Amino acid sequence: MTVTQETWQHEYITTNGVKLHYVTQGTGPLMLMLHGFPECWYSWRHQIPVFAQHFQVVAVDLRGYNDSDKPKEQSAYVMDEFIKDIEGLIRGLGHDKCILVGHDWGGAIAWSFAYAHPNMVERLIILNLPHPAKFSQGLFNPQQFLRSSYIFLFQLPGIPEFLLQSGDYQIIPKTIQGTAFNKDAFNQADLDTYQKAAAKPGALTAMLNYYRNIFSHSFFNRDWGILDVPTLMIWGENDTALGKELTYGTENYVKNLEIKYIPACGHWVQQEKPELVIQYMREFLVI
């Protein structure tokens, strides 16, 4: 599909002590898009121009990624800080609420933010990241434990950086394309963008620090109630890291839930099947 970039604007905003880079297009209510690992704002390139017809779309580089600040302390990469970043971003952009869209780590942050500030989330859209309670339960499944084994590798000091930066960071694009079900979803320019983002000074360790704090922060260590925010989950069924069964039972934690499964699609759902993702988002938002 055609990606229109002519009216995209690259901006910066300082919130919660960090300067965040974001790309924005359109005017109106805020639609805030949060990317995953090991990506950046660019993962939303297909969706930005479509929804900019109805919203002020903002696709942010999360702290530690690409052109946003990269605090050196590992303690800077915990969920409480991510939530403060998003709250400050919404208010700093002149809004008091948003439609919040998140994929992978962005989905984890979006889930947590919606629980922390439900009044600031008009609607929640999550792509290929299970509800935190379901993720925690899933790690007791041997098959899912194996799928998530990279998380335990990332706990090691230094070794993941050495592996990921070897060969001029080639493992980053190779991993993205290699785990995609639709290999043609990424052209060389797309893969180069992610490779260059990961190679920026301090980015790789910052990105890994998300994982190094994963078992200590509130994403896992809390009791989850019932979320009273209308929520859409979109799930690529051929995700090699997260099994479809992690979505089962989500309705026990979300009062108003829709789930759309996309067959023949991997983890990178908004890039592998952008037209279908856009269709499901439009239907959910009634636009």
Share of helical residues? 25-40%
| End-to-end Cα distance | 20 Å
Question: Major β-sheet, in short?
Answer: 8 strands, mixed
Q: What is the number of beta strands? A: 8
Number of helices: 12
Average pLDDT over all residues: 94
Shape by Cα distribution: globular
Q: Assembly state here?
A: single chain
Radius of gyration: 17 Å
Name the helix and strand elements from N-terminus to C-terminus, one letter apiece.
Answer: EEEHEHEHEHHHHHHHEEHH
Textual characterization of the structure:
- It is a single chain.
- With 287 residues, this protein is of the alpha/beta class.
- It has a single domain, classed as 3-Layer(aba) Sandwich (Rossmann fold).
- The protein contains twelve helices and eight strands.
- It has an eight-stranded mixed β-sheet, sandwiched between helices.
- The two termini are 20 Å apart.
